[in-house]
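Long-time lurker. I teach an intro course on protein structure, and each term I like to show students one example going from raw sequence to a predicted 3D structure in token notation. This year I'd like something fresh instead of my usual example. Would anyone be willing to generate the tokens for the chain below so I can use it in lecture? Attribution to the forum is fine with me.
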Amino acid sequence: MRILITGVTGFVGSHLAEYCLGLGHEIAGTMRWRSQQENLADLHGDVKLFECDLRDGSAARQVIGDFQPDRVFHLAAQSFVQASWSAPAETISTNLLCQVHLLEAIRESKLDCRIQVAGSSEEYGLVSEDEAPIKETNPLRPLSPYAVSKVGQDLMGYQYFKSYGMWIVRTRAFNHEGPRRGEVFVTSSFAKQIALAESGRGPAEVAVGNLDARRDFTDVRDVVRAYWMSLESCEPGEVYNIGSGHAWRIEEMLNMLIGMAKVEVAVRPDPARMRPSDVPLLLADVSRFVGVTGWKPEIPFETTLRDTLEYWRGRV
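-- Reply from a regular --
Happy to contribute to a lecture. Here you go:
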């Protein structure tokens, strides 16, 4: 099949491209002109790249017309929660415009293709203890501009399914980590700081924000397998949680990484890393997705962290 991955040069997009290539499919992806292609370095040019800013509707139509995909995984987005506080308008407009242009291009082309809209656990926002683990029916109470934008993308996917009969599945992935994760995200930030300390190129400390939040972590390589299965087995128009079903305190994750360090490192609270409001708990109930697909995570969290640390050791 012809598989289109928007944001293919990103963290998740590159892993998804690897997985789909391993299944023997033809892969293309969109990238913005300033995107770094190093995440695709091991794919030896096997991915057809379209330089395309999806905020431009004509560019989206050009890609869809040229490639004529059978499957579309829509991953392109401004995905850093912290950045959405400093650029709320850009985050919301980028994420909504990119998706509406993509869906309009597919609708106008009359392609018979399956589409995955990649949502986020951040859509749930404020969750009380008695609401966890979180089901897909839980109220959406977003606590950041990024989360608001993902709610918009999620509901837009539903609207296009209902209005036009387009084959769209919505997923809400909880935190997914691993090699190539951007350094602004918490696991990768800690791992990079430790790698810098080990190499003598940084202080023997890790600057941290809120360590009390609890997050449901899954390896990205398990998540992209779940994304593929969502278009194989799930019902169009429906929404599915993807996660491990286990919540780790950020402090627990930090201590695991520090335990893997080759040097002693201290922990330094950094007020700049604190958010105006933070989601205290994200823990997935994945029974719906597992019941439909049979999927389950296979990579232990310790392996995910070790691979992330090794990635940054190689980088620094």
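Some talking points for your students: The chain has two domains: 2-176+218-242, 178-215+246-282+299-315. The chain has a mean pLDDT of 95.
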